[in-house]
Structures are given as C-alpha cells and as structure tokens.
Amino acid sequence: MNLWPFRKSPAWNTVNYWALDLETSGLNPSDQILSVGMVPIRNGVIEFGAHFYSLVRPAHPEALSVEGIKAHHILPGELETAPALPEVLDEIQQRIGQDVLLLHFGSVDLGFLRQSYKALGRPWIKPVVVDTAVLLARLSERRRRLEPHSKPYPSGLGAARALLGLPPHLEHHALWDALATAELFLVLRHQLQAQTLRQLT
C-alpha cells in the first residue's frame, strides 16, 4: 500500500509531525485504549504548549486487569468521567489532518488505532508514519558498518534515550512518552543527517 501523499519529498522540517503514544489495557487486539498523548513538532521544533492529552472511558471497564493498572497506574475510577473513544478519535484525527504521525514501535499503536476505527465503522485515515524504532535500527546499522563489533542501540524508548544523551522521563504515561518520542526523533534525525521526509520514512 502506497501511503506517500507527496509528489516530491519535502524537507524534513517543512512538514508537521504529531508524536503520539497510547496507554492500553494490554497488548492484544481485544484490549482497550485508556489514554492518548500527542505532541506536535513544527518547523523542526517541539511545541509542547499545543499538546493533547486525554483519558479514554473504556467500553468494557470490567475487563481491566490488575497487571495493566500496575503498568500505567490509571485507575478505573479515573476513567468513569473520561470521554468515550469516538470523541477521542475525533480529536486525534483533527490534529493529524495532513500531518505526519510520529510513533515509537509504530505497529503497536497503529494496530490499536486501526482496530478502533474498524470497530466504529470508520475508514482508516492512512497517515504517513515515521517510527523512531525504525530510525534507531538504521542508526545501529550505520554504526555497525563503521564499527563492526559495536552493539546495536537498544530499541526501548528509555534505554535508547539514555544512550543518546537524553534525560530520563516518566514512562508509561501517554503524554510524557509522546514527548520523549518527539525528543528522540529530533536526535535521531540529526544523527542520521536526514534532510527530507522520505529519508525518515
């Protein structure tokens, strides 16, 4: 499937990105989205003041697990008055528009988003996606060519940030993970010397 909407690849800093992270009740397709965090990058600069964060009221609160709560620390009582998934998806789609979706391990969050759209009978919006885990793998490959015995960069968000000189962040919180992804992206873009959006996808 060709998701490329541009006739010619624009410079990387002339398009807008939305770093997005989801906290979910688990990692299976039947699990539920519990919170969403989004942070924009415009003109190559993180604009944290324009972030979006929301809890999501689960359709099946009885299915929430103790193991999930231990990971994301979102309590069932906090979700009772949160907006429902259709309303939150509207907010996500309004922000992405024609912009680029920036994810870490994109297959997980994309899977949940696609499943949510399908469950609500909505057509998938097919955004252009940049995945920082993919960029990390490219940086590891470049490093291996220069230093054959070097170890690959860790794929975990926190570990990769630490190795690249970024500070620790509050993990398993959708907004702070989205911000952490945005910061990691800017470092990786610089390390890879990518000049166009095409070089990042």
Q: What is the residue-averaged pLDDT?
A: 90
Roughly what fraction of the amino acids lie in strands?
15-25%
Helical amount among residues, as a percent range?
A: 25-40%
Structural class: alpha/beta
Number of helices: 7
Q: Biggest β-sheet, characterized?
A: 6 strands, mixed
Distance between the termini: 14 Å
| Uncertain residue segments | none
- Indicate the multimeric state: single chain
Order of helices and strands: EEEEHHHEHEHHH
Radius of gyration: 17 Å
- Give the overall silhouette: globular
Number of distinct beta strands: 6
Question: What do you see in this structure?
Answer:
This protein is 39% helix and 15% strand. The protein is built from seven helices and six strands. Strands 1, 2, 3, 4, 5 and 6 form a six-stranded mixed β-sheet that branches. Helix 5 runs parallel beside helix 7 (174-192). The protein is globular and about 55 Å long. The model has no long low-confidence stretch (mean pLDDT 90).
Protein traits:
globular, 201 residues, 6-stranded mixed β-sheet, alpha/beta, 6 strands
Describe the structure concisely for a colleague.
By secondary structure, this protein is an alpha/beta fold. 39% of the residues lie in helices and 15% in strands.
SSE blueprint:
Layout: E1 17-24, E2 33-42, E3 45-46, E4 52-55, H1 66-72, H2 76-79, H3 85-96, E5 100-103, H4 106-119, E6 129-131, H5 132-146, H6 157-163, H7 174-192
Parallel strand pairs: 1-5, 5-6
Antiparallel strand pairs: 1-2, 2-3, 2-4
Helix pairs in contact: 5-7, 6-7
